[in-house]
Amino acid sequence: MTAIMSAGVTEAGEGIDGIRWNILGQTYVPKAYTESSLSWHATLPPGTFVPPHIHPTQDEFIYMLQGRLDLVVDGKDGVANPGDTVRLPRGISHGLYNRSDHDVKCFFWVSPARRLYDLFWALHNLGPNASPAEVVAIAAKHEVDFLPPPEDGE
Predict the structure, then answer these.
(1) Structural domain tally of the chain?
(2) Which of 12, 55, 72, 80 could potentially form a cystine with 95 if both were Cys, beta carbons 3.0 to 4.6 Å apart?
(3) DSSP letter assigned to residue 152
(4) Distance (Å) of CA 3 to CA 104, 127, 149, 151
(5) 152 within some domain
(6) How far apart are CA 134 and CA 23, in angstroms?
(7) pLDDT value for 3
(8) How confident is the model at residue 1, as a pLDDT?
(9) Who wins on pLDDT, 24 or 38?
(10) Whole-number pLDDT of residue 58
(11) Domain containing residue 135
(12) Integer CA distances (angstroms), 107 to 40, 103, 126, 134, 151, in order
């Protein structure tokens, strides 16, 4: 898909062109995609997470709709609740964790879009048992750099 946006409404619960990605057990529904921006609605089930990583070429934002999201941003712990906006400047490491018993629902966007749309297609349906090394390698080819796990294994 080219990053040319048409005018109109992306309806609630629907993604552009009917797209719904399964990204390692989380559901991402893209809402808008242009060269300058990509946005998506995300549902993170209990116990799911996005390991610490860096977007060297993008600023990322998260608007919280439902639930509690635990964060590690630039090595510091934080929490985001409904109504909060998380700001993640390019080059800053961040990890996202749903440690609750309920779904987290939030709205993400990045600017510029760069290769993130293609990364989500590459990760779509890899499954919850995907090899971490494979995920890291795929992400690196799409301008997202995962950090190595902490030495204590957490």
Answers:
(1) 1
(2) 72
(3) T
(4) 28, 27, 34, 40
(5) no
(6) 13
(7) 64
(8) 52
(9) 38
(10) 97
(11) 16-146
(12) 6, 13, 22, 26, 32
